[in-house]
Amino acid sequence: xxxxxxxxxxxGVILVLTHRNMPRLGILPLVSVTNLGxxxxxxxxxxxxxxxxxxxxxxALVLAETQEQADHATTLIRIxxxxxxxxxxxxxxxxxxxxxxxxxxxxxxxxxxxPGRELAQAAFQIDNIYRxxxxxxxAIELHAVTVAWEGNRLTVHDASQMIAGxxxxxxxxxxxxxxxxxxxxxxxxxxFGGKGMWDHQVVAVAAARIAxxxxxLVLSRDSVYRIVGGRTPTEQRVALGADADGKLSALIHTGHxxxxxxxxxxEQYTLTGRALYRSKSYEFVQxxxxxxxxxxxxxxxxxxxxxxxxxxxxxxxxxxxxGIDPIxxxxxxxxxxxxxxxTPFSQRALVQAYxxxxxxxxxxxRQAVPGTQRDGEWRIGLGCATGSFPYARMPGASASIxxxxxxxxxxxxxxxxxxxxxxxxxAQHAADRLGLQIEAVTFEMGDSALPSTPMxxxxxxxxxxxxxxxxxxxxxxVELLRLAGNASPLAGLRAGEVRMTDxxxxxxxxxxxxxxxxxxxxxxxxxxVSVTAAGSAPLExxxxxxxxxxxxxxxxxxxxxxxxxxxxxxxxxxDCGAILNxxxxxxxxxxxxxxxxxxxxxxxxxxxxxSGRIMNATLADYHIPSHLDVPEIEVMWTGVPDPRSPLxxxxxxxxxxxxVAAAIANAVFNATGKRVRDLPITLDKxx
Length: 687
Ligand code: MOS
Hints:
Layout: E1 2-3, H1 5-8, E2 13-17, E3 61-64, H2 67-75, E4 78-79, H3 90-93, E5 102-103, E6 106-107, E7 110-112, H4 115-121, E8 124-132, E9 144-150, E10 153-158, H5 163-174, E11 181-184, H6 199-211, E12 215-218, H7 221-227, E13 234-242, E14 248-258, H8 271-276, E15 282-289, H9 304-322, H10 326-332, H11 350-361, E16 374-375, E17 378-390, E18 398-404, E19 409-412, H12 422-434, E20 441-444, H13 461-484, E21 498-501, E22 504-507, E23 514-516, H14 517-523, E24 528-534, H15 540-543, E25 547-559, E26 565-575, H16 582-602, E27 607-608, E28 613-614, E29 633-637, H17 660-672
Parallel strand pairs: 10-11, 14-15, 19-20, 26-29
Antiparallel strand pairs: 1-4, 2-3, 5-6, 7-15, 8-13, 9-10, 9-12, 13-14, 16-17, 17-25, 18-19, 18-24, 21-22, 22-23, 25-26, 27-28
Helix pairs in contact: 9-10, 9-17, 12-13, 13-14, 16-17
The structure holds dioxothiomolybdenum(VI) ion.
């Protein structure tokens, strides 16, 4: 029972929205790899009935003239409710765990050979449970939306990494045509998987429609924890068996994570082990626990970030048990082709990354016996671990190019820049392709009215858009050849036989045959030429096993007195194909590695299993690494171009965080002899 009368009587209050006056809305399709246009993060109805499923669920919205009036009126709403049993306990939920048939597009329960027997008979065995806590999204920019209706036209200024999909979803939900909804989000102050569509956008759009006025809604930091999902906790078993030479005979990776049926993200932590090492036998399976919580979601390298913690800690444990160098162990198990499917790798130079990284880091200074290096109260240790993240290029990206007679180009698509340098890199790419100086290229993005591109997610945006721009540039050359006509020195040449350079269209065979853009367009009496095209289908993903990879190196100091861990050096040696822009790439890698420090040492969502409530929903109590936690970070790469990818590049947005937590845990073990298998590695676990 809702009593909103006191709130409604407050000065400045325009509208109190509850299930009673909320428009009847359908369900948002969940974002998924098989429904790439979808953006929904929750399949629960939004303020459609009186059922409260989890603590933090949106039950009412107060629209007022000022934030203060709205905040005050909110406190006057009375909600009386009947209590029903809630599922809030990880351990208890195991009894009713679900085992889905697939994890993303991979078969979930996968068995190759006889891993149980191989493990039992192995010369060396490791079999342990690793735990990672829930993590929450803490982009510095809060989730915020400003919306306005004009008749049936809706304009949404959002902070979104899913612009085109958001426009489609809102159109469907509110029953208008998709051309009538325009979502703008030219810059995003951090996304990491959390800036999709949550309840706040939907209730803001509903309130604006009912109130007949524009609405701005900014989530508080506390609300971001309660309304936007985060990374689920995991409990993972990794068992490794190896022969006397360190060759793997069994690789078992199984576990439990939380995924309510209304959430989209399966936290695919067993995917890494399927692609990283050769082994005689394998078993993988993930079980989902159904808790009554805000739907968990994608968070930078979902699955791989926590999966590599377990797998790469276990590899370090195996190396220690065998008395061999952990890099050696990895090299002995390096596969020639994808270990499960036999599919060829598109390009893989992990061995080189380890070689180069170890040399730069000074890996030879590592002491094999743990706890033997110290400096006063500080024990010093070195660790390494592999990171891995699958390549993805999304179908359906399109882009347009407008080229003027003066040799200026505008490249447009609905891409989103969350700070990773999308506009910079694509302007560079377009300038190269169009034979223009970068200053002559304008890259327009962040607007659903522009040619549609998929979300910025899965580290896939750069190649997805690159393929679209490449297709548009090819089409532009066809159009220019047509306009050039028979009077041109290019007459008779076909697309594919010309390229653009220095504001000219030039024969590849015979560079003497050339005509300037200006000359072609002048003769055709055109001021400009404009084309739109879609990128080719990402068939490379079917034919090749493609992964970004990294070799992470870490040095820690651990205080004997307090148990405090300080990461003193961190180096990432990446193998991600061609690096398109060294400056923005370095920044991306470092950002991911810093997030890895948070995962390893400081970040933990404290969830009260009695009340189902998050206890530390503030940046004061949930510590993300700050400057004092972060050492000078070194980043290097093999830079070997991937022959199967547009521009030779694989993704770099998420690989940075993967493997870092294991590298830190392995360094802590090397420093102290203590193996911490549950993150974060706080000082109480080391005393
Ligand atoms: Mo990412 S977790 O695909 O933004």
